[in-house]
Amino acid sequence: MRIFTKKLPHPDLPAEEKAQLLQNSEYQEMMVESTFMYLTLDLPTAPLYKDEKEQLIIPQVPLFSILAKFNGATEKEYKTYKENFLKRFQLTKLPPYLIFCIKRFTKNNFFVEKNPTIVNFPITNVDLREYLSEEVQAAHTNTTYDLIANIVHDGKPSEGSYRIHVLHHGTGKWYELQDLQVTDILPQMITLSEAYIQIWKRREEDETNQQGA
């Protein structure tokens, strides 16, 4: 993965001083390449408002909207105690398996908050070609992934529970596991859950051909 980082001047500085600082090498964009074990997907801030029936509305966001973080163009501001940075990310390689960690939990000095936003995602045919740098796209014949496992968090951060959705490769059926209970589940029900961690498998050449047949 390529990580592009650009330091920002302090927001309270006068405009002229900011412009001068941006000319310094310290404030020019730098690029580093880094390996990764999983991709963290940031959820938009959840607006908690009620409808006309006084019921809380749970917001939804498409998977491809939060994957845009890795398209090489989307910038996000990161703040530290002393400095602010703009960062953008771009994938340079697609492994056989990808792990997505949907960032639902935010921790501060007092408590942990959970973002309940539902992520709308397809179970199959997620093509990640556009998130690769142009020069390495040609080296990746297969860039399509299918979901094989989905970990869900239900309830409050401190009192919640976990469920796991697993694809049985031999039968193509999905199962839900919670503690010692195993039940069948329809694929369309998986997409309604508060997904937390997902595992995706890249299609091989023969699998892609079978899907297109």
TrEMBL record:
Its EC number is 3.4.19.12. Residues 1-203 form the USP domain. One of its GO terms (molecular function) is cysteine-type deubiquitinase activity. InterPro entries: Papain-like_cys_pep_sf, Peptidase_C19_UCH, Ub_carboxyl-term_hydrolase, USP. The keyword Phosphoprotein does not apply. It catalyses: Thiol-dependent hydrolysis of ester, thioester, amide, peptide and isopeptide bonds formed by the C-terminal Gly of ubiquitin (a 76-residue protein attached to proteins as an intracellular targeting signal). Keywords: Hydrolase. It is an enzyme of class 3 (hydrolase). GO terms for biological process: protein deubiquitination. Gene3D superfamilies: Cysteine proteinases (3.90.70.10). This is ubiquitinyl hydrolase 1. It comes from Smutsornis africanus (Double-banded courser). The lineage of its organism: Eukaryota, Metazoa, Chordata, Craniata, Vertebrata. The gene is Usp39_1.
